[in-house]
Design a protein that fits this description.
alpha+beta; 4 strands; 15% helix; 44% strand; RNaseH-like_sf
Length: 73
């Protein structure tokens, strides 16, 4: 699939950041065409609310044709 325009495809992922006592979790939404990080959120828990909040904030800037996540663990 050729990516021709901004807001055509967005992607989201979560990663963890090791800290002295535990982890912080980073969720980000990126536009594949511009490679611009639309929004990112940090949380000290792995609950879904911060991911949903990140997506809702990103949707205020536009609406993608495709939204991709790896749907990992």
């Amino acid at each position: 699939m050729e990516i021709k325009t901004v807001n055509q495809i967005w992607s989201s992922d979560i990663t963890y950041i090791p800290m002295r006592r535990g982890f912080m979790y980073l969720a980000a939404v990126i536009d594949w065409r511009s490679r611009y990080v639309l929004v990112w959120k940090l949380s000290n828990t792995m609950e879904s609310e911060f991911c949903v909040s990140a997506l809702n904030q990103a949707l205020k800037t536009g609406t993608p044709q495709v939204f991709n996540t790896d749907q990992g663990a």
